[in-house]
């Protein structure tokens, strides 16, 4: 589904990714871990098309399409979705309008008509209930006045409504208490499917107790230096990155 090959990325003239290569197949959940400044968030931001990143070398292919040649909205319409570590507030735009506009834009890109209002409301209320969110959230401005946990639940709510092919979650666990973590994890796990892939960027093993990944990659100084299964995350929790950083150097 996703092929990242020899990716080099600079930010403000500083090289952050230094030859990163990664393959993700449909049906898989991959976790990216690593020390601060290793380039974890940069990877998902570049795939999604966030401004401020310059790709100087390498390629990104999603279902055979050259991602770097696609506009941000084309990436979203193709099924790429990034859940932010720090979701932005959008004053004046109600949650329900954002969800409806995004879903219908996706449907239009597939040549489908708009979802009828009763069907849309049924879908959204079902997903709200799943995320243990009150219906009043639909009438509030996007993320405005939301707590950290509410913002993260809202990111997962968007994913449940939009059903992306590749869901990328950038430190979705940061700032969550244990109850909110379980709700968010349940939301992510409900997305697991043969036709979908999930990429988790996280610092902590505890998220991976709830969302067990198929593969764990350790990113150090802009490159993936070690790959394993879920047990690798537990080893990192116990031993830290020091030994891996030394061997990578």
TrEMBL record:
Keywords: ATP-binding, Nucleotide-binding
SUPFAM superfamilies: P-loop containing nucleoside triphosphate hydrolases
PROSITE patterns on file: ABC_TRANSPORTER_1, ABC_TRANSPORTER_2
Domain ABC transporter: 2-246
One Pfam family it belongs to: ABC_tran
Family (UniProt): Belongs to the ABC transporter superfamily. Ycf16 family.
Record protein name field: Fe-S cluster assembly ATPase SufC
Lineage of the species this protein comes from: Bacteria, Pseudomonadati, Pseudomonadota, Gammaproteobacteria, Oceanospirillales
